[in-house]
Design a protein that fits this description.
CATH superfamily of the largest domain: Bira Bifunctional Protein, Domain 2
CATH class of the largest domain: Alpha Beta
Shape: globular
Strand order of the largest sheet: 10-14-15-22-19-18-16-17
Strand content: 15-25%
CATH architecture of the largest domain: 2-Layer Sandwich
Largest sheet: 8 strands, mixed
Structural class: alpha+beta
CATH topology of the largest domain: BirA Bifunctional Protein, domain 2
Distance between the termini: 26 Å
Number of helices: 20
RNA sequence: GCUCUUGUAGCUCAGGGGUAGAGCACUUCCUUGGUAAGGAAGAGGUCACGGGUUCAAAUCCCGUCAAGAGCUCCA
């Protein structure tokens, strides 16, 4: 569920976040909501070095990490006991807040959840024996000899070598000390550190088993990865498991179904979201909300088509460089027919599309080129700037099927996109405006716990477009703009896109998970590629700067995050159904209809539950539907011309006059209160 | 994409080589009930799709499609 392209990203250990910015194929999504385009000088992939931890750094390992790492050894001990042919690879602890630990193992037997009980029982024995974790230092030759005799990551010598451990030994730098950790008969090549005794690992649970490539490389064999978690004590373990359960209950896929918000249909296609009426209300409300602020901030809303000519994307640099992350091009019918008559193969067609010999269209992977063309359709004076073009623009990207999931990883999504064309001097003010908008959005939705990251260029890299002077100026502008937020912000050198610096918001949700939402990016590249210009006060032509920004990222992802944030209990203004009227019996349905008309008239989304059920059952249903307000109407209310108000969280709130309630709820909706 | 798991009624799921099951939802009837489930009856399924094995396949095998989890923060 973690990813970043369209704004929202779960921040957690993830190979995604470690990927090189220009890796083709699986990630065009590495650092922005905007598809990365190659720099004009095409310095393509810049791989990120795997950082090896020094022994000193390992000593810093927290107590919890030590417990987890040690528990991983206990797990391996148990598995080795049950299946002596096990070949172990890595067995690290994971960061606090994430799963716990895992151990990768290659063995004939397929470990399934049914085995967990047996594994845990074996682990308990090891813990009970309270074996000492003993560290001994060995020479490289000694370690190699042990590995060759199959002694490493095993309970005794074996007929087979400890194959992965031999490979891992080769990865250890010449000058680094090599150590073996022993607990009972289980010896393992391990840098540690560990807790003193296996008795310290008493609160653990084996969670799941999955497969993983050795060293994460698809070219390597796949291993079975057994996940577990461990804590200092059983109370903390129980709390953790409870939190995981909470998160599961909040899953937007589950709630999306319960509340009838969206549907993904096999017949339509993977990763293509169908917004059902209820979900559409939430989205429309959010769009209206943003729209109001766009007006206030002087944006112009535009509409652009979902496709564009391949040449447009050649100019922008998105085709064919990122063809792997796009839907395939649509060749022109005439050209395709002519080629078919010539007996042209698919491969040839693809090549001709790429080379431009055959014309075609592309489903747009981003909105920028269209907005640029709108900008270019007029001559611009410096007096016109900034030009701010906004659109809820739907874009399509080809994600690997394994990357798809719910609303947060999709193949078609609508960005709350905008592009600002301005002078260099206007960058700071415009960025401040963007930040203000993000701040308003997050504040309104009660997502006030966030941090801000300012992505700057890596001073040692040459991948960046634009001259250093411009960058200095822009980075300074972003810093100053970020400073006006009144929130702490972190400067992150090397995190800028090649085309310009950026600011990201990382939001913490109510159960402590982090998501990347909202980004603002400065772009020097596209203005250059498209040759954008305006006439300055000096009557000479100048190049504008572009700013991309999207406070939500994408509507799909943002609504997905919101569902989980609110656990489906949207604030009244966002609720698909705001008020439900519950007549106590059929006799009061007519009165209920009167109240319905009055609320409806006032623009409230209201329904009447006229089912032949007792009011208790109606309340239960309304609660399950997370309706903010339930109005009970019976004999008393008919008499006093009132309604009895029940709130989904606050319960019975007593009786109110109908117009009194109407005014109250309308005020709540108008003010978009939480 | 790759590995594993899963796919049975609108939903949540049980079952499993020989008339297809439950609860909720739905329809009808009884009931007119005051803050999280009143009662009864009924209707609803090519058991994801396509092949194969078998006297017989929802069940076993193969393939396809789709969903879920995972795919190095280090020995």
């Amino acid at each position: 569920m973690q990813a970043e392209t369209d704004g929202a990203k779960r921040i957690q250990s993830s190979r995604r976040s470690r990927e090189p910015i220009f890796s083709k194929g699986s990630t065009s999504r590495s650092c922005s909501i905007f598809v990365e385009v190659p720099p004009p000088t095409a310095t393509m992939p810049e791989t990120q070095e795997n950082q090896r931890k020094t022994l000193e750094e390992r000593d810093q390992m927290s107590e919890l990490e030590r417990i987890r790492h040690s528990t991983a050894h206990v797990l391996a001990t148990a598995i080795a006991k049950l299946w002596p042919d096990s070949q172990f690879a890595y067995g690290p602890p994971l960061l606090e807040g994430v799963h716990g630990f895992y151990y990768d193992v290659d063995l004939e037997h397929r470990i399934t959840p049914e085995d967990f009980e047996q594994i845990e029982a074996e682990m308990k024995k090891v813990v009970k024996e309270n074996q000492t974790f003993e560290r001994i230092t060995v020479s490289r030759d000694e370690a190699l000899a042990l590995a060759k005799s199959g002694r490493l990551a095993a309970l005794g010598e074996r007929d087979v070598e400890s194959v992965f451990k031999i490979d891992l030994l080769n990865d250890i730098p010449e000058d680094e000390e090599i150590s073996i950790y022993k607990n009972g008969d289980f010896w393992d090549l391990c840098a540690g550190p560990h807790v003193p005794r296996t008795g310290n690992c008493k609160a653990f649970k084996v969670l799941s088993v999955a497969s993983a490539f050795y060293k994460g490389d698809a070219a390597n064999p796949q291993l079975q990865r057994v996940y577990g978690t461990a804590f200092k004590n059983k109370t903390q373990l129980a709390e953790h498991l409870e939190q995981v359960e909470q998160a599961r209950q909040r899953d937007h896929r589950k709630i999306g179904k319960e509340l009838d918000l969206f549907h993904i249909d096999e017949a339509v296609g993977q990763g293509l979201v169908l917004w059902k009426p209820n979900g559409a209300v939430v989205r429309q409300e959010l769009q209206n909300f943003i729209g109001e602020h766009l007006d206030r901030q002087g944006y112009s809303q535009v509409f652009t088509p979902h496709i564009g000519k391949l040449d447009l994307y050649r100019t922008s640099g998105h085709f064919p460089y990122y063809a792997d992350s796009q839907f395939p091009p649509l060749p022109e019918r005439e050209a395709m027919k002519a080629l078919a008559d010539e007996g042209c193969t698919c491969g040839e067609l693809t090549n001709q599309l790429e080379s431009g010999e055959v014309a075609g269209f592309l489903l747009k992977p981003m909105n920028c080129p269209h907005h640029i063309k709108i900008f270019q359709s007029n001559h611009h004076s410096y007096r016109d700037l900034p030009v701010r073009l906004a659109e809820f623009g739907t874009v399509y990207r080809w994600e690997q099927s394994g990357e798809l999931g719910g609303m947060t990883r999709v193949r078609g999504f609508t960005q709350d996109d905008a592009h600002i064309f301005c002078t260099e001097d206007q960058v700071k003010e415009e960025v401040m405006g963007c930040l203000e908008l993000v701040k308003i959005v997050l504040g309104t939705l009660g997502m006030e716990d966030y941090r801000v990251r300012v992505g700057l260029r890596d001073p040692d890299s040459t991948k960046y477009v634009g001259d250093a002077e411009k960058w200095d100026k822009a980075e300074q502008a972003l810093r100053e703009a970020a400073a006006t937020l009144g929130t702490e912000f972190a400067e992150e050198p090397g995190e800028a896109a090649f085309y310009g610096p950026k600011i990201d918001f990382v939001v913490k949700d109510v159960i402590g998970r982090e998501w990347q939402l909202g980004t603002v990016q400065v772009d020097y590249n596209l203005p250059e590629r498209f040759g954008l210009e305006y006439i300055g006060s000096d009557n000479a032509s100048h190049r504008p700067v572009m700013i991309h920004r999207a406070p939500f990222g994408s509507m799909e992802r943002f609504v997905g995050v919101l569902i989980e944030h609110f656990a489906g209990k949207f604030p009244t203004w966002l609720s698909p159904e705001q008020v439900r009227i519950l007549p106590i019996s059929e006799k009061f349905v007519d009165v209920a209809k009167g109240v319905y008309d009055e609320l409806r008239e006032a623009g409230v989304r209201v329904t009447v539950d006229d089912a032949d059920e007792k009011v208790g059952a109606k309340i239960r249903l309304a609660q399950l539907d997370r309706i903010p307000y339930m109005l009970l109407i019976g004999a008393k209310e008919q008499e006093s011309r009132q309604v009895s108000v029940r709130h989904r969280d606050r319960g019975d709130e007593g009786a109110l006059g109908v117009s009194e309630f109407r005014d109250k709820v309308v005020a709540e909706i108008r003010s978009r209160s939480l």
